[in-house]
Hints:
By secondary structure, the protein is α+β, with helices and mostly antiparallel strands. 24% of the residues lie in helices and 21% in strands. It has helices spanning 5-10, 58-74, 89-92, and strands at residues 18-21, 25-29, 37-43, 83-85, 101-105. Strands 1-2-3-5-4 form a five-stranded antiparallel beta sheet, with helices on one face. β1 (18-21) and β2 (25-29) form a beta hairpin. The longest helix has 17 residues, at 58-74. The radius of gyration is 14 Å and the shape is globular. The N and C termini lie far apart (32 Å). 23% of the residues are buried. Guanosine-5'-monophosphate binds next to β2.
Amino acid sequence: MAQTIFERLIDGEIPTEIVYQDDLVFAFRDINPKAPIHILIVPKKPIPRIAESTLDDQFLLGHLLLKAAHVAKVIGLEGTGYRLVINNGHDGGETVPHLHCHILGGRLMDWPPG
Ligand code: 5GP
């Protein structure tokens, strides 16, 4: 299967500002931010979307969320709050088929989302 743009960022093939990474996850700034702070955190394993994760991914998915909260704290969003978003499939607004969690902050979020 062809590499996604996120695999190319993880591999360093395309330069990006890395916010956090460890053996399992990679966080970087969204190229088209929807809030003053918009970071994406992705598993290095190229799972296409949450619907295609399996029980084998249980630890990885927990790690992804814990590190999303860690990144939000380090970036200074803990006091004001922030939103984590995972888009799944066409109607969910998914555009890159590599599981990613959006970390959005720096403004008051609307509810319900559009
Ligand atoms: P989705 O719509 O799939 O939930 O989110 C994909 C996100 O990836 C979008 O917010 C989009 O701006 C971001 N994105 C797409 N291509 C690139 C890229 O090459 N670099 C970075 N940093 N973000 C990207």
